[in-house]
Structures are given as C-alpha cells and as structure tokens.
Amino acid sequence: MVTMQSEITVLPGVGSVRAKALAMLDIYTVEDLLLHFPRAYQNRGDTQTIMEAARTGEKCAMILTVGSEPRSVQLKNRKTLTTFTLFDDTGRITSLWFNQTFIRQVFHVGSTVRFWGKVTRGSRGFEISSPEFEPVNRLRPLPALFPIYPLTAGINQKFLQNLVAIALSSLDVPPEDSIPTSIRQKQGLCTRAEAFVKIHRPESFTDLSAARNYFIFEELYEFALGIAGAKRERRRLVAPKLLSTPEMRDRFRKNLPFTLTSGQEEAIADVERDLSSGLAMRRLISGDVGSGKTVCAAAAVYIAAENGYRSALMAPTEILARQHYADLTKLFAPLGIRVGLLVGSLTAAAKRKVKTAAAIGEIDLLIGTHALLSDGVELPECGLIITDEQHRFGIAQRNALAGITNGVVHNLVMSATPIPRTLALVLYGDLDVSSIRTMPPGRKRVSTFLVDDTYRTRMEGFIEKQAAEGYQTYVVCPSIEAKDEEDEGALVGIDGHTVDKTPLHNAVEYAESFAARHPNLKIGVLHGKMKGADKDKIMARFASGEVQVLVSTTVIEVGINVPSATLMIVENAERFGLSQLHQLRGRVGRGDAKSWCILVSDTESEDAKSRLNALCDTTDGYEIAEFDLKQRGPGDFFPPVGVGAPSGRQHGQLRFRLASLCDDMNLLQAAFSAAEETLAGETQ
Length: 684
Ligand code: ADP
Ligand code: MG
Description:
- It is a single chain.
- This protein is of the alpha/beta class.
- Among the domains are: 56-138, CATH 2.40.50.140; 446-618, 3-Layer(aba) Sandwich (Rossmann fold).
- The protein is built from 23 helices and 24 strands.
- The strands form 4 sheets. Strands 2, 3, 4, 5, 6, 7, 8 and 9 form an 8-stranded mixed beta sheet that branches. A 7-stranded parallel beta sheet has the order 13-14-12-15-16-11-17, with helices on both faces. Strands 18-24-23-19-22-21 form a 6-stranded parallel beta sheet, with helices on both faces.
- Strand 13, helix 13 and strand 14 (365-368) form a beta-alpha-beta unit.
- Helix 8 packs across helix 23.
- Bound molecules: adenosine-5'-diphosphate and magnesium ion.
C-alpha cells in the first residue's frame, strides 16, 4: 500500500542509490516528494507552428502530425538513426532520434502528438532532434504547464517528472487535509489532494494559482498555529522575579564606554518590567543592524546575575558566538560576571572544561551555538535565555528553547529584521516587541548606488582599490538551483509570471571568472550548500582580512561584524526584497571607514527600478520595510526554503515553501485568525 508516509523506496525505480540521491533534496517519503515543488514550468499550452518555431529557434511546444513511418538506419559510428517527418499547416520537419529504435513502435502515420523541442535547419531541411513528446488525447486536454524541478546529482529532470507522476497515481490513500474543512471552504481553497495534482501537473494558470493559494495558506496556517499555541501557553508561565535597583542601573551604565540611546533605554526599561513581573518574559528586541541590541541583552544578563541567576546566549553561528564572547567578556569583567564559550570547534578537553565550569556554577553567562542545547549542558539556576536570530523569526528555534527550558525561564530574542508594526503584531504574536529606532551617534551612512552592467569594469576597479587600501568587499549573488543539464526554454515561475531571462549570477561561477580577471586578489566563496564548519572557516578568513573578496549567496545575511569590509555589491539586485537588501547593506559601514553599497541590476521594469532607488534614498530599515510591505505584500518577510536554512534535516524545522509568494496581507491575517479559531475549538 502506498501512502503519503511510505518510504520513497516503495515507488518503482527507487533503489538505495536513488534514495540516497533523493535524500540530498530532503526527500525521504512520498509526501516529501510531493512537497518538492517545481521551481518553474514550461508553458506547453502555448504552442507554436513549425514556421514560428523555426523563426525563433527557441525550445517550444508544437502540435504535429506524423507524416511518414519511422525508419532506422545504421550509422558508421555504430549509432542507429531513426527518422520520420512531422507536419502542420505551415510546414514539414524531419525528426531525428539517435539510438532510440523503440520510437518505431510509438509513432505511426496520422497520429497527432505534442512535441517540445528546438527546430533547427539541417541537411534535411528543418529538423528537430529527440524532442520530448506527449500523445494528444482528444478526450482529455494535455496539461498546459510542464513542471521543472530543482535537481541534485544523480537525479535528472525526466526521472523526477516521472516519479512524481507515479506517486500521484499510485497513492492508495489520498493526502489528508491539514486545514479544517470549514476554514478551507471559507477561504475558497481546494483540497490538499487536488492541490498536489494542480501544482505538479497544472492544466491551466487557474490550476496553478489554486495550488499556490492552497499551499501558501497551509504554510501560514501551520505557522500561525505554532504562534497561537505559544501565545496561549505563555500567559500561564510563572518565572522568577528578577528585580532591578537604581544602584544596579547606575553601576551598569557607568561601566559602559558610551551613553545609551533613547531607543536602548526604552528597550531596557521594557526588559526590566518583564523580568520583575513574576511571569516569564517573552520579548523580542528588534532594531536595525548596528542599533546596539547586544547591550540591551547585556543589561538583562546583569539583572539576572545580580539576582543570583545565570544566563545563556545562543547565537546562530560560531563566528557570532565568538564575537559576542569577545565583546561581552570585556564588558562584564569589571562587573564580576564570568563568561564562558561553548562551540563545536573547541577541543573535547576544552568543551569538557567549559561544561564542568558551567555545571559547578563558575559561569554566569554561557555563550554558544545550538551545541548549547543539545550537548547535555548543565547551567544550574539558569533564569534567562537569549537568542540572537539568524534570519527572520526562527520560530522553530524559539519553540525548541521553550521545550528545553520548560518555560520556566525568561526569554529574550534579538532580531535585526526591521518589521512593520502591523506585521510584527501578527508574526511575533507570541512575543512582546521592543523596537529600537534610534542609532548610536556618529554612524556614517552607507552610500548606495544603483548601476547596470555597463559599470562592471569601473566597479571591479573599485574593488581592487578597496583591497589595495586594506579593505574588503562582499559580493552577493542570488541563490540559484544547480543548473539543469540543458536549456529548458522560456519558463513560467511558480508565481505564474514568466521567469526573467536576465542571466543570473551564480556565486561559484562568478567567483571563478572574477578570480581569473583578478589573479592578485584573494577570493573566497560562501553558499548555503556548504557545511557549517566550512562556512565558519571562510567567514573567519574573511574577518581576518586574509580573504579580500567574499562572493556569496545570502548566507552572509547573518549578523556578522567585519569592520574592515567597506564595499557591498549585490548582483541581480532586482531579485531581492528591499528588506533583505537593507539587511545585506548592513554588513558594511561597521567600522570607521567610509562604506558603499552597489546594487547591480539590468532590470527593465520601472517598478523594480523605483524599489531599488528607494533603497538608495533612505537608510531607515523601518521605512524600507513599510515600503516593501505595501509594494510586495508580506511574503518578503518569510525566508524561502534554502535561504539561511540549516543544511540537513532538522526535526520540527518549519520550512516555508511558498509563503514568500504571499502578496496579500489579508490572506496572512485570515490564516492567523483561522489558527486562533481552531485553537479556541470553535471549528470542527
Ligand atoms: P546590533 O544591534 O546590530 O546587534 P551591536 O549591539 O552589535 O548592534 O552594536 C553595534 C556597535 O555599536 C557595537 O560596537 C557597540 O559597542 C556599539 N554601540 C552600541 N550602543 C552604542 C551607543 N549607545 N553609543 C555608541 N556605540 C554604541
Ligand atoms: Mg547583533
């Protein structure tokens, strides 16, 4: 019996080798396979005549009739060539098939077939070589949109297309609905079973949009359920009362090398109120990069320590953990607060030492990565857990923490994603939010420019110049899937729009060609498919100045601080949301030197240009986020799968597949009210 939960190996053609390859795509079960959505579609409903196809010379769909019986001949190179003619009202072409003699059984004079391929001019006149084909059935129209999937080594397009089709037709139990029927109907959504068929083999754009709506709502609804659950829970959580006195406030401030900004003072006041309330603090401190969130967290650590409680600080990467460790050790030394570091790269002996120190109460603030939580670490009398979020709302991380601590401690989350208030209320519904909107004095603004490809030579000269002066450059390219083995022709994106044909820069290739042009520069590459430890290594080499130009995908969005990096270049800038670009820009301008951000785009779209120009005009992250929300909807605030996601499978990790396409605030709100309703038990 084949069900959604069946191992992928129940499907014919999937043995242990293929199963291993599929695991690289996070496909282990039939459901995982069906959730592996197409990245784009070939528009085969839009057919061309032979004449049109010959004129454009691009891959396209044609409906043609077989004009002669297939005949095979043996070629000198031992290959067999099978040929037959095809025609429509505008002309006649010869189809060529090498070593595919089975074709003789498939095609017969008079049958009508939809082909997908490229018409070229050859020795036999117009020719088409090994096109893809689907017999036309008069009773049932052929799907208009043919799926193109993200691939990995050992898995090709045709295999995946077939496998999905097999899975869809061999399910003995249809996929269960994950949204209660009444809610689904109220939203006018199709069933989950229908949505799977429509996303993999849409017969029309209407099908595609129905599927998209279903899955966007499903993701938002599941996400909302998590938030709504946490929100209900927290009202009941009793936690130690941690009190602040005027003397403590005074001592903490006197120890700082600067005066707190008004935004920082307000955030700290919020934290003090939470900590002394007797209920568990669940607070988010949101503030632009560089707004000084760390010191607010430090204030909380100090209050906890003065009240006899220890704290833990979890950073998303080892580099960040080390950075916090260096900064906070210095800050806390005069206050008598002992800081420890626990990260994966420490030697076993060093780890043991830190763990022992923590367990016997010699560490007041333990800083680390995920390792903190999983390695059986003991931190007695831990009253406060702080997380520095890697990217937009690590809800999974937050939930994991809540589980591990049984909710008896105070939680503080720091996030550098400026988020419009309306959206924060919804997305961070389980947290109270303090927004720091003031910047420490003396910050230089990062000069931002929008340029097109004609500036490349000058721009690369500028990179050389920065390097000569001892500064470093980031180059960010959009994340792209492993290239398919062949050109797929014009594609329709999963959002229903034609995929922009501007060639996309891929970090790995970019770095290679850049290195060839600039042999004197030291170049590093960083992308999401690399192992965590390798990423950290490259980042460390960049931070130390050894690597002068870091070519990466958006993985560097992480709040890393390299003060000597002065230039940020974003290729294909039109591909990014404004908030994301703003985030990237925040990687530079962290030292005393003048810094620049150059957005490179060849887009023709006036909309895109005006968005990018808005970024050149303002440096206020909140203003930019509002602009993004208005122009593109809330989807930009959901990281798509892959962006910054940890490699490998993480239990309970929420993956947004399509939510980033949500362009409608009402839909988001509907999903959240539906989740509230569900939890309130008002829905059957
Ligand atoms: P982020 O909000 O991005 O985490 P950080 O907390 O890392 O920002 O602070 C960025 C830098 O600004 C740090 O070097 C910090 O010491 C400094 N800083 C923080 N607050 C102030 C302030 N009120 N005045 C001057 N410098 C400050
Ligand atoms: Mg920070």
